[in-house]
Specification:
Blueprint lengths: L20 H14 L4 H20 L5 H10 L3 H8 L4 H26 L4 H8 L11 H22 L3 H21 L13 H17 L3 E6 L2 H20 L3 H5 L8 H13 L5 E5 H19 L8 H7 L18 H25 L4 H14 L4
Antiparallel strand pairs: 1-2
């Protein structure tokens, strides 16, 4: 079967010697010069839509479809980056002259993405700033129709009427389409950093937390140095347990609204910078957050919240991770007596703060709800 050469159309004399680099460059320059100036402006929308479609697909490079495209076509994100660098007709013409087959793959993949289960998600992402157009399917129709026209043009240019080349290109397209047909249920949208629906929702919730924490202070507390350190540590514990995800309890903490990472870190940093025995103002949201963190810390002192057990067990073993995961503690744990004393100190300090809040807000609905939320998760420790 014949093989494609992106520059073959300029040198179709099979008896001619191999052209030099200078001759090839001259041929490329002639081709670029012959292109109409309006080529890039006309193709720009299709190129942009195809770029986004390719990026949405290929961003998850290890997924089945990108892997199959790499194996079949040696096609990956590198060529998409080359298309992204195009900004006028000469640069587009040069890319066509040197990589026309890859441009064929690029437009075909973009078209297949817009004709796949990814299309509604991609369209929603593209129309995120234009809610009124979120149900408009004109982008899909444009990419399918104009993309098909360009694929036909590229096919004619690549094959020049050669029946073998036409058949090879037809099989190339069929095999690419087969990948999407066979593996379509594995497709998932790749978003730029910070742009996924989950990340945007988290950003909105973080902003909501920050606004609540900036409200007028509800209470002023004086903490001594030990209280500042231990309660500040308690604020870091939920994030650690969520990140390790070693137990059902640790994983469930992610569902607690007041345990969003940024809000916990913000209050922990405030406590770290605070001076002992000076007035420390707390917004109502911050007081509830610290109250729930103290509850989690109190539970963690005596219950198996880590794979190896409680905080005391972690102190004894030198690390919280499962040895089966390949984790090796950096050093030996604390002596048993020192670990026991740490447990007793944490229990006393956490219980003292919890009791202080409950005594001062005995019938407060927010405090009772916050307590019930952690108590319900504590059932996972049984």
């Amino acid at each position: 079967m014949a093989e494609f050469d992106d520059n073959e159309e300029e040198f179709d004399d099979s008896d001619a010697p191999e052209p030099s680099a200078e001759e090839r460059e001259a041929a490329i320059e002639r081709m670029v010069a012959a292109l109409p100036a309006e080529l890039y402006p006309v193709m720009q929308p299709l190129l942009m839509m195809s770029q986004l479609a390719n990026h949405a697909l290929l961003g998850h490079a290890d997924d089945p479809v990108p892997q199959a495209l790499k194996e079949l076509l040696d096609y990956d994100h590198d060529f998409v980056r080359e298309v992204m660098a195009v900004n006028d007709t000469p640069s587009l013409g040069r890319l066509l002259a040197t990589n026309m087959l890859q441009m064929f793959d690029f437009l075909l993949v973009g078209r297949l993405v817009f004709d796949s289960s990814l299309e509604p998600t991609l369209r929603a992402y593209l129309n995120r700033n234009s809610p009124a157009e979120a149900d408009d399917t004109s982008m899909r129709d444009y990419v399918l129709d104009y993309g098909e026209t360009m694929l036909e043009n590229l096919t004619q240019y690549l094959t020049s009427g050669d029946a073998d080349l036409e058949e090879e290109l037809r099989m190339r397209r069929l095999q690419t389409e087969s990948i999407f047909a066979r593996l379509g249920d594995t497709l998932r949208m790749f978003y730029p950093p910070g742009q996924s629906p989950e990340e945007l929702a988290a950003e909105r919730l973080d902003a909501q937390d920050e606004a609540e924490d900036a409200e007028e202070m509800a209470v002023t507390v004086r903490f001594n140095q030990i209280q500042l350190v231990t309660l500040g540590t308690a604020l870091k514990l939920p994030t650690m347990l969520i990140g390790l995800a070693e137990t059902p309890f640790g994983r469930a903490l992610e569902t607690v609204p007041r345990f969003r990472k940024k809000a916990l870190e913000r209050l922990a940093e405030r406590m770290s910078a605070a001076e002992p025995d000076e007035e420390f103002p707390l917004a109502w949201s911050e007081l509830l957050r610290l109250y729930q963190a103290a509850q989690v810390c109190a539970l963690s002192v005596v219950a198996d919240v880590f794979w190896v057990g409680s905080i005391e067990d972690v102190l004894l073993s030198g690390g919280p991770r499962n040895p089966a995961d390949g984790y090796e503690p950096e050093g030996p744990g604390l002596p048993a007596e020192e670990a026991r004393q740490t447990r007793e100190m944490l229990t006393r300090l956490m219980s003292g703060f919890i009791e202080l809040v409950e005594e001062n807000y005995l019938d407060d609905e927010d405090v009772m709800a916050a307590k019930a939320e952690i108590s319900q998760l504590a059932e996972l420790l049984a």
